[in-house]
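INTERNAL AUDIT FORM
Audit reference: QA-55
Scope: verify that the stored structure record matches its stored sequence.
Auditor: D.O.
Record contents follow.
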Amino acid sequence: MLTTLIPKLRGLTRDESNGLKRAAQSLYEAGVTVIFQSYISKTAIKGATFVSKGSPYIVLTDNQKKYDTIWFSLIHELYHVLKDFKQIEKLTYHITGESDLFIDELTEKNANDFARELLFPNSKMNYIKDFLDIPEYVIEYAEKENVHPSIIYGFYLYKANNNKLYRKYNRHRLKSDVAIKNLLINPWGKENVDEIINEVKHFYQQI
């Protein structure tokens, strides 16, 4: 079920206000619980995956406070659920963005490649990158490819890694708050993981 669901998540990026919430609800029904955690200052944490009582949990943060980044983090962590579940179950958790002694660089690269190709493949980027100065065309192309235009601009800037281009195109990227406002569960401050899980489950059961 999960392998069938994940490719469908790209289309939900087009729903700015409720797409992430809808994705989280669909994943919950498929057995993966998504938890949102506000960014912890002075860390590089973008997301995490942990296992409790045999079930996978994904934690997302608004590390860069950008719409494309939080969607990328979700798909990245889903790769770990699909490919690294048994290893993470033994270790209990994996954190993305911080050094990890147990998940190697190749695995992280594979997770990144998986997220990029699912949300907006390089073959599509190679075409549209020459038209980024025409936002109307990017919006039209994004609709055709069933993805949000913010993801196109965000992925391009990540790959380009150029300050001048960042200043030029960053205004076309949405902030993450539009997507996470309906997922504001704060799991921290609880006494144990079971208490966190119970609160999160209650949240999704009310949606």
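Auditor finding: record pair retrieved intact. Residues 187-191 have pLDDT under 50 and may be disordered.
Action required: none
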